[in-house]
Amino acid sequence: MVFVVSDKGDLTAREFIDISRSVGWGLKRRYDLKKVKKALGQTTYVVTVRDNRELVGCGRAFSDDLLFTTIPDVFVKPEYQRKGIGTRIMQRIIKRFGHTTIYFGSQPGNELFFEKCGFVKGMQSYGMKRK
């Protein structure tokens, strides 16, 4: 398989919804395509990985490009996991924003992946639940 990695902003709203659902995120959520498109447009950096034209992985980052970068999501379709795609996404984000401190949360069970990418567990974080 030859995967094409891009950071040219070629992720559509429909693709984002589909890939997030493929890994179990947002299954019960009703997405508004216009709002998803707007959110993607406001994302600082988007990395996509395609097999032919099919989206098989993506990652997003928000950054001030000086001190702080956060990664809200890295998705790889289940049938493409453990093929180096997530690593390639992270490498592209690190290459672009490695001069900043990069923050993100990890779902249970994914900690080893991020450690292999060179990250160490940091301080405890907090979040606010939506109403």
Walk me through the structure.
This protein is an alpha+beta fold and 131 residues long. It has one domain (3-116): 3-Layer(aba) Sandwich (Aminopeptidase), CATH 3.40.630. The protein has 4 helices and 5 strands. The chain has helices at residues 13-22, 33-41, 85-97, 111-116; strands at residues 3-6, 45-51, 54-63, 68-76, 101-104. Strands 1-2-3-4-5 form a 5-stranded mixed β-sheet. β2 (45-51) and β3 (54-63) form a beta hairpin. α1 packs across α2 (33-41). The chain is globular, with a radius of gyration of 15 Å. The mean pLDDT is 92.
Sheet with the most strands?
A: 5 strands, mixed
Count up the domains.
Answer: 1
Read across the widest sheet, the strand sequence of neighbours is 1-2-3-4-5
SSE pattern, N- to C-terminal: EHHEEEHEH
Roughly how many Å apart are the termini? 43 Å
Total beta strand runs: 5
CATH superfamily, please?
A: Gcn5-related N-acetyltransferase (GNAT)
